[in-house]
Amino acid sequence: MSLWVFIAAIAAADPPPPPVEVRVPVIRRDVMTGRFEIPDELVPAVVPYMQCLNASAGIPVYRGNREALIAPPPGITKGSDCSGMRKQAAKTADKLLKARGHRDAAERHALIARVLGEADDFVSRTQAPTQPRN
Length: 134
Hints:
Strands 1-2 form a two-stranded antiparallel ribbon. The longest helix is centred in the last third of the chain and has 21 residues, at 105-125. The protein is built from 4 helices and 2 strands. The radius of gyration is 29 Å and the shape is elongated. The two termini are 57 Å apart. The chain is mainly α and 134 residues long.
């Protein structure tokens, strides 16, 4: 029995090995955390404007689950002015809403202004991706 006590005492006296530091590479990347929903009836009018805003801000837009890059509208590059596309989006949206039976001009204009304003806010909160940091 004293042999067992002796083995237990030695085992208890032996300090545990120092922890081994495992270095796992950390990859940081920017991710979109916001969300912006476009009413279905306004999608054909607002999407080209959103594409212009994103391209102007240098934000790439992908199809599906990052399957393929969606090209920006022709002639739109980083720093482009999208005010003309915004006016066109408002005009197209108004026609779409009229065709859907929205008769009140004030309500149509308020909805369009709200959606385009949300698009502006969404893109201004979204930053262009930076180079990966390790």
